[in-house]
Amino acid sequence: MTRRTELSYPLTAAQSEIWLAMLLESKSIGDDAPGSMGSESGIAEGSSAELGTLGYASPAYNLAEYLEIAGPVDVPLFEEALRRAMRESRAMYTTFIAEKEETRQQLPPDVDWHMPVVDVSTESDPRAAAEAWMHADLSRPLDLKRGPLFMHALFQAGPNLFFWYQRVHHLVTDGFGASLLAQRVAHIYTALIEGQSPQPAAYIPLQEAVEVDQAYRASKAFARDRGYWCERFSGRPEPVSLAREPALAHQSAVAGILRQRGHLSAQTRAELGQLSQHLGCSLPQLLIALSAIYLYRMTGQSDLVVGLPVTARMGSVMRCFSGTVSNVVPLRLSLSADMSLQALSRQVGREVRRSLRHQRYRGEDLHRDLGLQQDGQQLHATSINVEPFDYSLHFAGYEARAYNLANGPARDLDIYLFDRGADKALEIGLDANAQLYSTDVLAEHHGRLIRFITTLVRNPTCAVGSFELLTERERHQLVEGWNATTQPVPEATLSGLFEAQVARTPQAIALVQDGGDPRRAHSSSLTYAELNARANRLAHHLIASGIGPEAIVALCLEHSPEMVISLLAVLKAGAAYLPLDPAYPQERLDFMVADAEPVCLVTTSALAGRLFSHRPTIRLLLLDDAEVGSMLADASENDPGDHERWQPLSLLHPAYVIYTSGSTGRPKGVIVSHTGIASLATTQVARFSITAASRILQFASMSFDAAIMEVLMAFAAGARLVLPPVGQLLGTELAAVLRRQEISHALIPPTALTSLGHEDLPAFKTLLVGGEACSPALIERWAPGRRMINAYGPTESTVCATLSTPLSAAQPPPIGTPIANTRAYVLDAGLQPVPVGVVGELYIAGSGLARGYLGRPGLTAERFVADPFGARFGMSGARMYRTGDLASWRSDGTLAFVGRADDQVKLRGFRIEPGEIASVLMGHPSVAQAAVIVREDGAPGDKRLVAYVVPAPVMMPEPSELRAQVAATLPDYMVPSAYVMLDTLPLTPNGKLDRKALPAPQRKHVLPGLRGQRKSGNCVRCLPSCWVWSRWGWNKSDWTIISSSWAAIRCWLRGWSAVFARYWRSNCRSGRCLRPLVWSSWRNG
């Protein structure tokens, strides 16, 4: 029983932070049973918790180790030495009370406690038996109010082998304090055995330690330390985590701990010591550098922040305090592939010295200063703890060796390096959060880290990026095993595949135009023979006009059978088609025509008059022109042959040119040849089980390369391609087409998929998603009862490079495995394969690779690089495409998409370069600087483009002007939905845009247009709050602002589908205002 005293003291800063962490953990768990902390009633200014009731302490915060004493132990004298040392220190006697709604610590004059003595010498494995007892003790919750918060036990494993076990809660002491106690016990025991008097203890009392702590926090030194850390991390990088789900790593709570332990040999330890002397650094600095290199190579993140545990005991006074003082300070390092080990070691030395000068400033204080604690974010995910403590303790001449059992909680990953001396092995341990790491994954990292350090120390002159991470077996699996995709496919062009299908099933329906009439399945259709004949007539006309291979023919047509006919005709003539979407802004169309220089533009009179009348030199082929119609009627219906074309058609000739967003503000045309067409077609027919009875929805715009995927799905298997009605296809209208046409296969972007309600679509058996990440909720909703597959591929790789197996909501959707004759590599900055689970940049190689960028040889050379592994596949001189996407291999050989290595984003399935939008904004005379990012401030998946603008001096651009500037140049999916004015753009210390510091758009930015306006009854209030408004007036034509945020899709889910669809087609696209829409909605109520 503990004898209480009325003396109590406030918590130190270190204790307060531990207390707060336990409270937050307890609150998140919501457990009131023993083992939880009890309820939180508030947090005081100094981070102290104010509790009315005390509960039990989580065992996760226990510290424990045992000392192996290699010799006989006099048990009574040992216990006497231990009790003397405990009374001298007294820190471990601490318990906690609630006093005036404030948590305080009290220090009773003495505590009754028992030291178990356990004989395990008769066990088959004495050490294992002792450790089992210790681990059972470690799992017990502790009563913070009653105590004791420590445990000591002595195990006899043999006549000359004893284990001294000590366990203590982290609120009471830290690792340094525990080592002070161990040293004191060894000293007293040795003195007692030798019949001498121990030297006096030098411990300082708890009260003095509390006063020193409070004085520091009120001092100028505290302010200086705070200033140093805040400046050092004003522009912080993302935490570096080895977890395979980084998003979880940044938000995870303290959980169970997984542990791996192993050793570097004594020889390797000796080599490390020699190397540190050669490099002019300490061994701990070298070990930190080696661990940092491992993190860099495993993540590719060059701006690293790791946690560095420190004693935080500055001054002789605090070095004599055995309570809790320790801290974890952030260590920021900058690495590059060409950096030498010596340069990094010296950098580590400089950073460590700077950090130690400011080590008393709490890491938790810095988290608050940086605003991280509000969202549960972390400054660092991984810590590196080098413990060069003196383990050469001797009990009456017999050496004792320490074995660590518990270091407290692990939020992510903690690396421990226990140095036992130059002639002994160096222990390497990993403690990991069980929510983030599996036992197998942790074991992989542990073994790899040991191999990595062993290899690196014997090749110290190599650059950081050249150290080998993989075994030869792993390298073979990553490069060759999971890229064994070689498959025979027809040597045919796209038009050749179509013509072969025409020969097999000439009378089968090839193309259907849905007219939007719910009473009729279709308003027009063409058989394969009819479609082929019409395409052949146009192809012969093009050939007669001198058009053939290597020529580019632009197609500007509505979504109609004429578009498909013209596409096939251009390909049959041997030329490449360039799709021009009539809905694109005039400036965008003009740029594409001027850049591609097509030899001909196939369009209609109406579109030509509206879009191309200002270009009198362009050669037009008007499909609705009577003279053209007459010539086509007289043209041959036979398939063109090479003897008729201007030159033989080869698979290497271009098939199409599609423009994608450019980071410099200039879109780039991707030239794709026929080489990968047959591989894509073969893969689709097999993987999607496409038959002649299948019905494929042609959902994508022809200016988007996904349209090729849809066309091939149908025409390579003799299936039916269904063209939906002209106009926006979302919500109930999309569902109606799927039902009316009995669509069996469709490629629908996730954002468009969200517009569909819970529809009964029995024929819809294969759903392909792609272009952007698909949420687990969508998978859970759409995967049951059908085959749901994730498709991934950049335009530069013939539409699709990888396909997943059928998706399950139980795990994040992978992007799958490479399709036929396609290879995928996940590489680091040095173009070396990275291990399973490690994030690298995704490179694509194989038959589907594009030629490059039209008229951009420099950019082509930059993005299409030599394939260093091509020779392994018998393809020396092959190229690979640098996607800019970050990915990782899973252990099952599938790829997981992680994000982007650059600023490029995917929004609504479209590839967008924010730099292109910013470039357009900066073309406005009132804009000095601009930046554009994608924000996801609302519901998960609700993404929108936000522009940040710094006005030119004495200028203030109107958001309406900026929106108009962008809309006149770029497609509507690239028009930002909000504009935020800033005095300056926030920058990181290295001069880059600090995206994290950009503020979220506030209501004042997006809602002022409604202020002062007369509301049109309750209808206005019924408009969904997810609509994005701007400062433009209520009567202005602002539909583009709403349509540019796909949050508006949710409006359809609330019963507005028919009204929106009608109004979109008849009013919004023609620039009419929004008020009639509200009135129409009210009338149709």
TrEMBL record:
This protein's record includes keyword Phosphoprotein: yes
One Pfam family this sequence matches: Condensation
Keywords assigned: Phosphopantetheine, Phosphoprotein
CDD domains in the cross-refs: A_NRPS_CmdD_like
SUPFAM superfamilies noted in UniProt: Acetyl-CoA synthetase-like, CoA-dependent acyltransferases
Condensation domain mapped to chain residues: 57-479
Name assigned to this protein: Amino acid adenylation domain-containing protein
Species whose genome carries this gene: Halomonas binhaiensis
